Each structure stands twice: as C-alpha cells, then as structure tokens.
Amino acid sequence: MSGTGKGVEKGAQAARSRALAVLRVRGRALAVALLPAAVAVVLLVGGATGHAVGGGWDAARWVTSVVAVVALLAAVAVGAVVVRARPAVTPTVEVAEESAPDLYRLVRDLADRLEVPAPSAIALTPDCDSWLEDRTHPASASVPAAPAPAPARRRTAAAPVLVIGSPFLWWMRVAELRAVLAPVVAGTGPSAHPDIAAARRFVRGLDAAVAVAAHPDQSLLRRVPLGFIGWASRLMLRSCRVHAAEMERGVATAASERAQTVDYGLRIVAQEQVGLAYAGWDRLLTRVALPAWRMGRWPSRLDAGVVSALTELSRRDRLAEGFTSRLGDRPACDLLEEPGAVDEAASLLAARLFHGGPVEPGPDWSPVDWPQYPEEVVDRKWRADAARLHRVLDTLGIRRPAAPDAPTLARVMDHLSAPPPTSDAPRPAAEALATAIEAEVAREGAPAPATAPPGPDEGDGLWETGPLPLFPLQPPRAGRDLLADHVTAMVCCAAVDTAGAVPGLDWLDGPVLLVEGERHADLPAHVLSLVEDGDAAPLRSWLASAGVRPEKPVRLV
Fold it and tell me: Concatenated DSSP letters for 498-556?
C-alpha cells in the first residue's frame, strides 16, 4: 500500500510541476504583451519628472506609446477569444440520475473508495472508451446532446463529467464495469487541483481559439485579426505542448496507481472484455449499421446487437469458452431504468457521428428493429448489389439471357466460366468484371443521407468536417473483394427467389444455409469456390446438389 501511495504522490507531483510549466507559458505571453506598456510608462514618467527631455525622447515616447496600445489591444483580443471560445465537447447521451440511480450510486461508491471527488454527471458515447470531460465552460451548457430519455440533472461547476462507452454497459457485467471505471474515476482527484485545472482551461482555450481562427466562413474584416489570433494561439500551444502532454501523463499515472486499491485483479480480466467489445462494436458498425445507414435506416438497438453477436461468438468459439459463464451475472445495462430508450438514443447518435445522419428520425431516416432488419436491409442490399452487377455486365457488352424467365444467376456464371487463353494465364473475365465493379462502386460512392446533419450552433466546427470515420479505419475494398460480395449477393437473391430462403442478419459468418434448423456448410463452399478460383461449375447445380427443395424451411443468414 505504501508503494501505491508513493506512486500516486509521484504522479501527482509530476502533473503539478508540468501544470506550472504550462502556466508559466501563459505568464511569459502576458509579460511580452505588457513589456511595451512598461517601457512607455517609464518614458512618460521620465518626461514628466524632467529626466528624459528633448526631441529624441519625445519621439521615443510617442512610438512606445503607440506600440504599447497596439500590443495591449492585441493581447486583449487574443485573451478574449481564448476565454470566450467554445472548447470541443463530445456529443453524448446524457444520463440523468433519475433514469440511472444505481449507476450513479456505483460511481459515487467507487469515488468514495478511491477518496476522490465524484463526477458531476454521467453521459454515454457510442464508442468503446471512457474518459472524464470538463464541461465547466459557460458555452458547454448550450451544446445540445443527443436526446436523452429523461431531463438531465443540474451539474455543479467543479467536477468533470464521466463519459462511458455505451457498448461497455451492455456487454460488461456490473463488477467488470466498476473495475474498468476505477482508473477513470480516480482521475477526478488530480482534476480538482487548481493548477492542473487552470492549465487545462488554458490549453483548451488555445485549442478553441485556433479552431475559431481557422473557420472558413470569415469576412475579410475579421480574417486579418483572426489570423493574428490564430498565429499567437498556435505559438503558445507549441510552447506548452510537451508540458501539457507530460501533465496528462502524470495525471494518468496518479489515477492508475490510486485505482490499484480497487478491484485490481478483476480489472485484468475485464480488459479482455474491453477488447472483445471493441471488436464486436467495430464489426457491428461496418457489417450491420453502415449498410442500413446508406439506405436511410438506422438500427435502433446497436448495443443490444453487440451483446447478441458477442454471445453467439462466445458460445461457439473455443477460445471464448470461459466467457460464457459470466453471462449469468448481472449486466451493467441493468443499472439503467430504461435501457431500451438509452440504447435507441446512443444508436441515433452513432449514426450522426459515423455517417452524418439527421438529428431526428423522419420519413427518409427511420429506425429499424432487429426482426425487420433482414427483410428491410439485408435483402435490399443483396438486390442492390445484384442490380449493380448486371449494370456492369451491360456496360461490358455481355448479352442477357434469351429467355425472359431465365435465372439471372446463369448470366454471371456463363461470363465467369469463360475459359482462359492459357492454363497459366489469369481469367480475363473475372479480372475485367472485378475492375469494372470497382470503378462502378467508386463512381457511385456512398449514398448520402436524405438530410444533411445541421451544426448544433452557429460557429461550432464539430459537425462541419463531416462524419467521423468508422474505427478502426476501413481500407478500401479491392475489385476481387467487391466481385466476391456481388456474386454472393446474386447467390443469396437466387436462394430467396428459387429455394424459398429468407435473409438473416448476416453479420458474423456471411451466407450460411439453414435447412430444417441445422447449419449446412456445403453451400458457402460452393460460393467460395466461385469467387476464389473463378470456377463456376460447382455453382451451376448448387440447388440440386444441396438437395434444397422449396417446401423445406430454409433460412439464409
């Protein structure tokens, strides 16, 4: 315990010393601004007392007085912008204490055990991370958050807000969440120190002033003074950047050392769940949410979807066998009074952040529940890809089937089955089709939402840069991958139209045929044989070889 105390004290001392270094940068900047005024005062006093007389001294007094006035006006302008500029505030779903009394009780009990101030409020973010955010700036109160299920309680001006990643609440158990939040809540202790708080306000103000100066929609009259203000703010930021980074590192060290006294052993195990939740959340956004967003729909239960996906993985993945036993414990979302309403608000906020969707639902931006997702999103996506594949074949001059009722899949298979000129040469048909699909997808681009997301307030630069990229950044798909997706979509459409199959969620494994409630892996093998080596022969008779008949209950997931 003594070692932990020494570690806490060492980290806190390092953070305070770096905070003083940041404040010294502010003091030096103020001294530079006051220096011309001090020189002017000395010269004026010397002239008034008869010690500095003559034409040269009079000229010096005029010059220094003008320089002093200009310097003071510039300093006042820079200071006013730094103080009044709105710092960046993360859009969140605020959780009122009335809607989550158990969650607030858990956080306050954690703060009491750590002997630190409790956070002033709790908010959720559609991300797999947690942090403390200072919202004491007066302008922060005017930043609208996502619609919350209940009105937020009034916050005090001292303690920061605890921001929790919403996937953590749904996937983690209560004890795991408490262990993961311990180092975060412990950070409220160093945050309450006056020097650290003042240094953070100064750095955030400089950053906000740089953002104000870089705003593109400025008149020429404002552009010149704002250019100087931005230059001065960037200069001070560069001067205190290293000290600010080391200050935050010291704060994190002190908080981590203090948190070792609370649930340290459980935290090591809970970190595995953090990585699993991150992987499941990223897969859900890219495989499930993104196609729906591009169609003007947004899944209204993303956090519940993460639980469903990860639970399925835990039950069938040999590496995750130990995770299934924890599912019997109380989930952290039970700490909320209305988890469904909070999940819906977080899902809508995720659509705004990662896709740029409208703030409120509407006719062209409506929610979709999981029971309707296969029919309203998955099937539509398959058919859109299939239609794009036929448009590309039209542009390549590939003739359509003569019979009007001929299966559309036959056209694709005939084209891909064209023999290569030599046994060692690549299949030109598949290569040409992959290149054409890649060009078509690049030309179409991602469909834009029906309504552009308006900025929360005039002059707020948060929404003006467009939607944030999905995390981790997804590399652009190559032509062969796109060809595989489009051929798979064609096969799925054929299964739906010919074999009586119905679409499933398709978020983990891709197309898998379920016949009479059992998984059959032979159909995906046929699909892979087509898209990997270009051999279309196995797929020609996939319905007959699989023994699928329309009267059987078939589900394609």
Answer: HS---B---SSSS--EEETTEEE-HHHHHHHHHHHH---HHHHTHHHHHT--TTS-EEE
Whose tokens are 């007066």? That residue is: 138
Matching residue, tokens 């309504």: 451
> Tokens representing 76?
């006042």
Span 439-467, mean pLDDT?
51
CA angle 122, 124, 130 (to 5 degrees): 85
> What is the β-pairing status of strands 121-125 and 161-165?
parallel
Tracing tokens 């078939």 back to the chain, one arrives at: 554
More confident site: 50 or 125: 125
Model pLDDT for residues 378-401, shown as the tens digit of each residue: 888 888 888 888 888 888 877 766
Q: Please give the Cα distance from 305 to 320 (Å, whole number).
A: 18
Instruction: Give the SS3 label for residue 125.
Output: strand
User: Using CB atoms within 10 A of its CB, is residue 279 exposed (0-12), middle (13-18) or buried (19+)?
Assistant: middle
Give 314's Cβ-side CA count (13 Å radius): 19
Question: Which tops the pLDDT comparison, 123 or 530?
Answer: 123
Please name the residue ranges forming H helices in 115-193.
166-171, 174-186, 188-191
User: HSE on the CB side for 515, CA within 13 Å?
Assistant: 15
Token representation of residue 180: 């993961």
Predicted structure pTM score: 0.79
Q: What's the CA gap between 506 and 284, in Å, rounded?
A: 10
